[in-house]
Every structure is written in C-alpha cells, then in structure tokens.
C-alpha cells in the first residue's frame, strides 16, 4: 500500500476530477460476459474444418451486420512479438470474402453448401491476413509511424525540408475520407489464448456510436466473450443486449 503525506489541495482536486470522470464513463457503459457453451475449438476444427479464430471473427461480423444492417470496419489484434520490441499490428478482418459470407448468410436463396463455401473462403482469407499482419505486413502501424513522424519530428540537419507540394500530398493522404472510415473500428476485438482460469475479460469499444469492444477466449468446448459498448442513448443505437442474443443465434 502506498501512503502519501503532505498532499496539497491541487492534487486532491485532480483526484476528485478523475473520480467524476470515471463515474461519468461508467454511467454510459454497458457490458456483458457471455459463455457460449454449445461448442468450442474442437468442434470448429473437427466438423466445420475452419480456423476457430476466423469462425469467431465471422460470427461477430455477422452479428453486427444483422443488427445494424451495414458492414463494420474491424480491428483484430495480431501479435508481432517475433520481432525485437514487437508488440501488435492490426488485422483488418473485414474482407471482401467476409462481406460475401455475411450476404450469403442473409440470402434466403443461399443453400447450406453455398453458406459453407462462403465461410470456408472467408476463413482462408482471414488466416492469410492474420499471417501477414503478424509478419509485419500490416498497414496501420506503418501509417501511425508516418503520421507521428510528420507531425512531431523536425528535419535532420542535412535533410531537405518538406516542400509545399509534398506537404499538400501528405495532408491529402492523412485526410482521406476512405482511410478515416476504414480506421473507424466499430468492432474492436482481441482474441486471447485459452485460459481456463480466466472467467471474464474486458475490452472497451473505441467508437462511441454503434461501436463494440470484444475480448474472446476460444476453449475446446466453449467460447467466452467480454463485450462492452455504450448505452443505447449514448451509443446512438448501440445495443449490447441484442448483440448477445444475436451472437448466440
């Protein structure tokens, strides 16, 4: 236990402000812990014959699509720890193949075979994206590094300053509407290694309106989810209760 002495009024004021901010954040937050016990990785690999992580990601995307009637830009954590000081990269899990899968699942004319072929293709694409991100072939950390370098680093002594034409091109790139929309991750997700001793996990949403933060643990016989979003009012349609029931379906 840390014991503080001679704490002045300014510090106490900051503590009070922080407490108020936490209370405000909690008051508009809605979260659920879901234990899906119908099956887990064993059935997904043995019967479905697809990647358990891809299967779970596609289930989350389909859930969002059915609730909000649109595709969600998806962030999934990829580990880059094979590199020195490596930490994470973004798997952009919303692919064209994933979109095809969601549309097939919602198409009354699609047969069971059509739907299975769609999930198999989407799973294969997802695994390829995950491998690329883990190998340092993602885009988000590179773009983040470029943005930080542009805004915060001064030219080196023998380096030619950025020209107005170059500055315009850089600003145009970082201000691109498609780039901004694609990085507005309505589904912010992270899979954890199987951990039977972990009952619940938490991961906050990064987009307030119709955004969800989701941790999941895929075990042999169950899948555990921790889901956080804002209340319906604060989240302009975010619905964690409906997300749970739709995900189970």
TrEMBL record:
InterPro entries (alphabetical):
Carn_acyl_trans, CAT-like_dom_sf, Cho/carn_acyl_trans, Cho/carn_acyl_trans_2
* Name of the protein this chain belongs to: Choline/carnitine acyltransferase domain-containing protein
Q: Is the Transferase keyword given for this protein? A: yes
Q: Does the keyword Transferase apply?
A: yes
Q: Which family does it belong to?
A: Belongs to the carnitine/choline acetyltransferase family.
Q: What keywords does the record list, in alphabetical order?
A: Acyltransferase, Transferase
* Domain Choline/carnitine acyltransferase, residue spans: 3-248
């Amino acid at each position: 236990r840390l014991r503080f002495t001679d704490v002045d009024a300014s510090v106490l004021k900051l503590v009070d402000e922080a407490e108020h901010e936490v209370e405000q954040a909690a008051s508009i937050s809605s979260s659920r812990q879901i234990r899906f016990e119908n099956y887990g990785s064993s059935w997904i690999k043995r019967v479905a014959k697809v990647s358990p992580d891809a299967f779970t990601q596609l289930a989350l995307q389909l859930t969002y699509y059915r609730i909000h009637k649109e595709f969600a830009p998806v962030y999934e954590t990829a580990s880059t720890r094979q590199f020195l000081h490596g930490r994470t990269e973004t798997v952009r899990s919303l692919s064209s193949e994933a979109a095809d899968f969601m549309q097939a699942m919602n198409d009354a004319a699609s047969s069971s075979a059509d739907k299975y072929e769609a999930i198999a293709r989407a799973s294969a694409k997802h695994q390829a994206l995950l491998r690329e991100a883990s190998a340092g072939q993602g885009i988000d950390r590179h773009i983040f590094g470029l943005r930080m370098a542009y805004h915060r680093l001064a030219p080196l002594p023998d380096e030619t300053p950025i020209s107005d034409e170059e500055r315009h091109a850089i600003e145009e790139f970082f201000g691109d509407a498609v780039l901004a929309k694609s990085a507005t991750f309505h589904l912010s997700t992270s899979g954890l290694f199987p951990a039977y001793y972990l009952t619940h996990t938490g991961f906050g949403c990064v987009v307030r309106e119709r955004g969800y933060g989701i941790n999941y643990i895929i075990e042999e016989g169950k899948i555990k989810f921790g889901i956080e979003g804002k209340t319906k009012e604060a989240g302009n349609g975010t619905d964690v209760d409906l997300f749970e029931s739709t995900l189970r379906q």
